[in-house]
Amino acid sequence: MPEIVLHNVIVFLLLAAVFGLCRWFVRQPYWPSARRALARRRAARVSFIVLCLYAAVGILDSIAWRDPLSDDEGNRVYNAQGEALYEAVPLSVLDRLCTPIRTAHEKTYSAPLASTQLTMETVHLDDGTVVRITPPLNYPGRHLLGTDKVGNDVLFITLKGVRTALILGVFTSLIAIPCALLFGIAAGYFGGLIDDAVQYVYTTLMSIPGILLMVAFMLLFGRGFTQLCIIMGITTWTGLCRLVRAESIKLRELEYIAASEALGVARPVICYRHILPNVMHIVIISAVLNFSSLVLSEAILSYIGIGVGPETGSWGNMINNARLELARAPVVWWNLAGAFIGMLGLVLSANLFGDALRDALDPRLKE
Amino acid sequence: MTAYIIRRVLYSIPILIGVNVLIFALFFVVNSPDDMARTILGDKNVTPEAITNWKQENGYHLPLFWNTSAAGAARLTETIFFTKSVRLFVFDFGNSDRTGISIGDQIRLRMAPSLAIAVPTFVLGLLVNITLSLIVAFYRATYLDRWALVLCVVTMSISALFYIIGGQYVFAISLRLVPISGFDTGVHMLKFVLLPVAIGVVAGVGAGVRFYRIIFLEVLGNDYIRTARAKGLSEVRVLFKHVLKNAMIPILTGVVMTIPFLFYGSLLMEAFFAIPGLGGYTLEAINGQDFAVVRAMVYLGAVLNVAGLVLTDISYTLVDPRVRLG
């Protein structure tokens, strides 16, 4: 029985939250027309498929378990207490699918689809002569994007970056959205002192440049995934909160809210039943559009040394490790190319899908 | 008008107090001076005496809010909150935790290189964005408009890191047109500033053109534009005279939105091009875990940001007399 790893649980909680949000969304009366509007746009269809592919890679990389340790004859290994022993590192489904490129280690750099190493080496031949050659690879022609400095397949590293970027974007949004909704609706609908307090808090937070707040936060709490998500959530929710507040103020003046109030519906119930559904589309649009800037920020933060830890595979870390590779001769471009393609695909499709979603859901914002 | 400016400036004081308290909470309550001492001294030489010594030397030995061992007003002033946080209001940043050098002196020294990059990037970026978006608005609903928009989305989906890495590779390493990195004063500054500014402008074009184009199209939908055309004015004249002038308010809003990105820009550019500015200073502080410097930079960034917001609000009243001074 393989051992399941705990961090999968978090990913599936995130997934459940996203799924719940989507399901709620699909049940809204405006969804059928929005879906038709989305389906009419080719950019929306293509970007949706690309996003699904990214999500599939991310999910495959999140289902991980540790294999039982076995000796050379294939028998299970037990410790003195008779408990089964497992491999130290869990492997995800993606790792298992990518075994041909994951385990194809080379010594150092090699160009995409090359059959020899990039750098020259001094080799002692059997007949005693010493030559300088570029030695042949262990797995010639197998590395679609070449190998990095320590001989790992770049395509595989790029794929491993997908999960990091997705979790970062989704987790951060799931921190920011509830905060923005709660405070934004409360400020907009109740007004008065609550409004003043909420406005004061978000104006203060917004007046600190986001990058500097992140720098301070990461310096104090150390590098790491959770810290990064929390601080990005803190810098993201303010903008969203302002939008929600402005929209709630508009809604407050509408007749159906006045009617509910006249009928004696409790004010929190009005917030939940009448205001929340009518600000949700704004939240979803900005969450999708924000997602891309979160992915871009992660790369920048990792580059300046305050992103996710260096042990986490991420595109920012890839760029960071490759920072001197264009200056060396011969040029090593494939590490950067891997991160570039990975990021561009995700960010571009999130942007395109976000634009299409905005046009479909909010005709007033239409360009 | 003067009364409005004074009121607007006064309004930003509670914000700065809030920022100050937040910074204090982050740096001294969440992260105690003991933690700081441990980080700075390193794991090897942590003894209780070393921590006490370090705190004594750097002024972190005082109580947070209320000094019971002092008398009179010193009960309030002989505290970390007063010496480290309240002093920020008068731009007394204290000394670096690592080197002991005065942070204020460093900031004055490094302000010029930062401005040499940030100001041209900001001004040129604005000009390029507005010109391009006017052109795109002029060709609205044509193929040019459509492809320009596609190009905008693609360029804004590329990380700024790649613009910098790519630009440095093409212009500095391959073509050798400009030095790879470094900084100089006087006339020689130009060759070091050229590439960072150009990259900064290009990296911002996508988002900028998209933003301003929507503004211009909104203005184009107004009745007075139709009237102007009916009078027989040329489209170019309509765009530059009527559209641009009436779009000033949203353009100013867009300008405010780019201010925070100047901080990103300065951090990245100064890191890549080894420019001895404030961004580079912040980066050194991050790598050296210099808490005092990071604290000072966060506060300074917030002050600059708030000042930018105040200036924009004042300029609203200059471009549009309808804006109420209430």
Looking at this protein, list some descriptive labels.
heterodimer, A: 367 residues, mainly alpha, MetI-like fold, 2 domains, three-stranded antiparallel β-sheet, two-stranded antiparallel sheet, 13 helices, 4% strand, elongated, B: 326 residues
Task: Give an overview of the whole structure.
The complex is a heterodimer of chains A (367) and B (326). Chain A is mainly alpha-helical and 367 residues long. Chain A has helices at 7-26, 31-40, 42-60, 93-97, 99-102, 154-190, 192-207, 210-221, 225-252, 255-262, 267-303, 315-321, 334-361; strands spanning 3-4, 64-66, 91-92, 121-124, 130-133. In chain A, helix 6 (154-190) packs antiparallel against helix 11 (267-303), helix 6 (154-190) runs parallel beside helix 13 and helix 10 packs across helix 11. Chain A is elongated and about 100 Å long. Helix content of chain B is 74%, strand content 0%. In chain B, helix 6 packs across helix 12, helix 9 packs antiparallel against helix 12 and helix 12 crosses helix 13. Chain B starts with a helix and ends in a 7-residue tail after the last helix. Chain A binds chain B through residues 200-201, 203-205, 207-213, 215-217, 219-220, 292, 296, 299-300, 303-306, 319, 323, 326-327, 336, 340, 343-344, 347-348, 351-352, 355, 367, and chain B through 14-16, 18-19, 22-23, 26-27, 30-31, 153-154, 156-162, 165, 168-169, 173, 180, 213-214, 217, 260, 263-264, 267-268, 271, 282-283, 286-287, 289, 291, 294-295, 297-298, 301-302, 305-306, 309.
Mind sketching the topology for me?
The complex is a heterodimer of chains A (367) and B (326).
Chain A: E1 3-4, H1 7-26, H2 31-40, H3 42-60, E2 64-66, E3 91-92, H4 93-97, H5 99-102, E4 121-124, E5 130-133, H6 154-190, H7 192-207, H8 210-221, H9 225-252, H10 255-262, H11 267-303, H12 315-321, H13 334-361
Antiparallel strand pairs in A: 1-2, 2-3, 4-5
Helix pairs in contact in A: 1-6, 2-13, 3-6, 3-13, 6-7, 6-9, 6-11, 6-13, 7-9, 8-9, 9-11, 10-11, 11-12, 11-13, 12-13
Chain B: H1 2-30, H2 33-41, H3 48-58, H4 74-77, H5 80-85, H6 103-138, H7 143-156, H8 160-174, H9 189-220, H10 223-230, H11 235-246, H12 248-272, H13 278-288, H14 291-319
Helix pairs in contact in B: 1-14, 2-3, 6-9, 6-12, 7-9, 8-9, 9-12, 10-11, 12-13, 12-14, 13-14
